Amino acid sequence: MPTSQDMTTELDPGLLDALQHQVAVFARRAEQTRLGGTGQLRNSMDRAAYLLLNRLDQEGPMGVKALAAGMGIDSSTVTRQVAPLVDTGLVKRTSHPEDGRAVVLQLSPRGQARLEEVRISRRQLMAEVTDGWTPDERDSFCTLLTRFNSALSARQSGLPVVQEAAAQEPATQAESTPVSTPVSTSESLPES
Question: Which of 161, 165, 192, 186 is nearest to 70 (CA)?
Fold first, then answer.
């Protein structure tokens, strides 16, 4: 089985350098703009809040541990990140439907409305940034970015990175942004 050193030397070093540079530029620009959308909603919701709200919307009410596990971050990080969302009324704490002693986090109606506003703004930003792209180019970019994020996530989790499976299996809602379904983002990048 080839080692990562063997694989790196088999590939074009110039291409790998260009790829890592473009990923670094993308990460910087994404953080600078927060890919927050357009108009008044630009930069109005940080990445951590968006990912938490989106996860709760896609998967329904869940406890802190389940939310943290699904996002690949510590429970303490989720607790810290969700506190302002509870304080502002975007997320509410409720009793677990099967075990009244346990508490689950749930998207509030206000949180649902706010998330939809941000999604609309972010869709507009994606439309503007990819203006002039063909539908096939948008679809290919989304597919490749999803594969890239899935591979990063697998590597971060200590799992083997299997590109063929990533290309054939659809990613989870939390890890993909299908062209026809507006919403999700990968948690592969470190949460802040």
Answer: 186
